[in-house]
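Worked Example 4.2. Consider the chain below.
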Amino acid sequence: MLRINDTITLADWEMSEFFTRSQGPGGQNVNKVETAVELRFEAERSPHLSDPVKTRLKRLAGRRWTLDGAIVIRAEETRSQARNRELARERLIELIQQALIAPKRRVATKPTYGSQLRRLKAKTVRGEVKSARGKPEVEE
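Applying the procedure from the previous section yields the following structure tokens:
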């Protein structure tokens, strides 16, 4: 069980972990021990998340969202497998918590009459400056 907040907890069947060898330098340890963790969360099939949360989660996950509706998070920062598991789970919790926040609806407002007048006056002044840059007219 993975606890997201007071109301949402994810079941164990929704997540699976795979362990692989970490990338990069590390000497003999990196060649022997499988410390990198790949956490796979079945987001699309999860009964604990509502549809709007799933759509926000898909947008937030980006490339980590697979075609079959799962989120794949890879952690390989430390040399400890247990710490990498914790990091991957923390990232998943953080991602879901961001998706739980519904964006505020934008309230359309009208510009004030004074701001409209100031805008139009600025446009006329700027137009006069630009027209003064041209060649002077020849009078006969």
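Helices lie at 28-32, 51-61, 81-100, 113-132. The beta strands are 2-3, 9-10, 15-20, 36-41, 71-75. Compare this with Example 4.1 before moving on.
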